[in-house]
Design brief:
Elements lengths: L1 H16 L4 H11 L5 H45 L29 H17 L6 H18 L5 H25 L8
Helix pairs in contact: 2-5, 3-4, 3-6, 4-5, 4-6, 5-6
């Protein structure tokens, strides 16, 4: 059963990856880069500060840093535990995929990019669900775009991304609950 799942995951990866076009390569490289989301982070920081003030903003920033570190380290634990090679490391795929990332890591299960993006989307979405009603949807869309970028670049299978979304969503929710404990009067209830 696992072999069938991995086979279908590989086939879906090849299909999605081959939808790429050199015209769009720069865009997807930018989306997945650490600098691609800086404008979004600046806007989110403005919204956080405007709604919560300095003290709560500093607590939120601390929690965000811990949350991103947690998703990253959890992903590393899975990558070295499962040791599933990235698609760009598979010899039988190299001739049929588009690999445009600047480098290809060794293991890929699960995507830390997808997990971090979803954790942030859930955390921020829950914080602003009552005051900025469309922000949670935008954040989920942004996380989906980040996740797809990993497939487009040739460094993650769809299952890597979906697992990253699931684990990131759980971590984002748990950190939101932690935030509620620290600053309950200012944060909306889920």
């Amino acid at each position: 059963m696992i072999e069938n799942l991995l086979h279908y995951d590989e086939q879906l990866f090849v299909f999605l990856n081959n939808l790429g076009n050199p015209t769009w390569d720069g865009f997807w490289l930018f989306i997945t880069s650490k600098f691609g989301s800086i404008p979004l982070y600046i806007i989110l920081l403005y919204f956080i500060f405007k709604q919560f003030g300095w003290k709560t903003t500093l607590i939120i920033l601390l929690l965000l840093a811990l949350m991103i570190a947690a998703t990253d380290q959890f992903a590393n634990l899975f990558k070295h535990g499962f040791q599933r090679p990235r698609p760009c490391q598979e010899e039988h795929l190299k001739e049929i995929i588009r690999f445009i990332a600047p480098r290809c890591g060794r293991y890929g299960y699960f995507s830390a990019h997808a997990a971090s993006a979803m954790a942030l989307a859930v955390f921020i979405g829950l914080m602003f669900k009552n005051s900025l009603k469309y922000l949670p949807y935008f954040m989920l869309f942004w996380a989906a775009i980040v996740g797809y970028s990993r497939i487009y670049l040739g460094v993650h299978y769809p299952l890597d991304v979906v697992t990253g979304f699931a684990i990131g969503g759980i971590i984002g929710y748990l950190f939101y609950l932690l935030l509620q404990k620290w600053v309950k009067p200012n944060i909306s209830n889920p």
